[in-house]
Amino acid sequence: MLRINVRDVMTTHVASVEGGTPFKDVAELLVRREVSAVPVLAADGTVVGVVSEADLLRKEEFREQYYGEDYRPRLRTRLRHRLAGHGEDPGHKAEGVTAAQLMSSPAVTVAPDASTVTAARLMDAHGVKRLVVVDDDGRLIGIVSRRDLLKAYVRDDGELKRWVEEAIPEQARWNDRTGIVVQVRNGIVTLSGHTSTRADARAAVHMAKGLGGVVGVREELVRDRDDRGGTP
């Protein structure tokens, strides 16, 4: 296995709500389940949005008493809210009383077979801390959070070493595959021994760097011959 997929690290026991779920019930669910957000589902089970702690806290941020004090969020905060809410005035969410009125929609979703790299890029691009995992029909499968993505980096060094050793013969195109020695410490892979050419060494390093859970790669390989252009 060259990569870790979302299904390998996602949480499958996911709390969810319907569009008509009252504000208080959503808040109680978040507190009881110790989660920061829940998907909002339509009657057919498809995901239509997500309600997060931030969505609920807008009711505190925009309480009536602050209007009397001319409260207005900083420009940076207003812009962030508008971008996250697709141009919606964040003050309007403060008036919401059901999940449908509070949620951010559409939800940012990911397929279970997507790589953790893809998931991390989606989170960064959309400025979210979690992604809803859905099937081909848009139905809820699970949730993957930033913390879930970190699971790739807490693999045992011995397990990671075996993974790299198995990947080398599967992926390498060079003839002499047994000359590479793999060592792993704190997630950092050291490749030593020898390869036939410089290109083989580069291929081995590239392969190791592409494996999920690898923190870094140190190359200490000796080439049997120098295949750089112009070398006699």
List the helices and strands and how they pair.
Elements lengths: L5 H4 L7 E2 L4 H11 L3 E5 L5 E6 H9 L2 H4 L7 H10 L5 H4 L5 H4 L6 E2 L5 H11 L3 E5 L5 E6 H4 L7 H15 L8 E6 L2 E8 L2 H12 L6 E8 L9
Parallel strand pairs: 1-2, 4-5, 8-9
Antiparallel strand pairs: 2-3, 5-6, 7-8
Textual characterization of the structure:
38% of the residues lie in helices and 21% in strands. The chain is an alpha/beta fold. The protein folds into two domains: 6-152, CBS-domain (Roll); 155-223, Histidine-containing Protein, Chain: A, CATH 3.30.1340.30. The strands form three sheets. Strands 1-2-3 form a three-stranded mixed sheet. A three-stranded mixed sheet has the order 4-5-6. It has a three-stranded mixed sheet with strand order 7-8-9. α11 links the parallel β8 (188-195) and β9 (216-223). The radius of gyration is 24 Å and the shape is elongated.
Silhouette: elongated
Tell me the name of the CATH class of the largest domain: Alpha Beta
Counting DSSP H or I runs of 4 or more residues, the number of helices is 11
Q: For the largest beta sheet, what order do the strands appear in spatially?
A: 1-2-3
Mean pLDDT: 83
Number of strands: 9
Note the run of SSEs as H and E: HEHEEHHHHHEHEEHHEEHE
Share in β-strands: 15-25%
Classified in CATH, the superfamily of the largest domain is CBS-domain
Radius of gyration: 24 Å
Q: How many structural domains in the coordinates?
A: 2
- The helix content, as a percent range, equals 25-40%
Taking the alpha carbons of the first and last residues, their distance comes to: 39 Å
Tell me about the largest β-sheet: 3 strands, mixed
Low-confidence segments, given as residue ranges, are: none
Structural class: alpha/beta
Q: CATH architecture of the largest domain, please?
A: Roll
CATH topology of the largest domain: CBS-domain
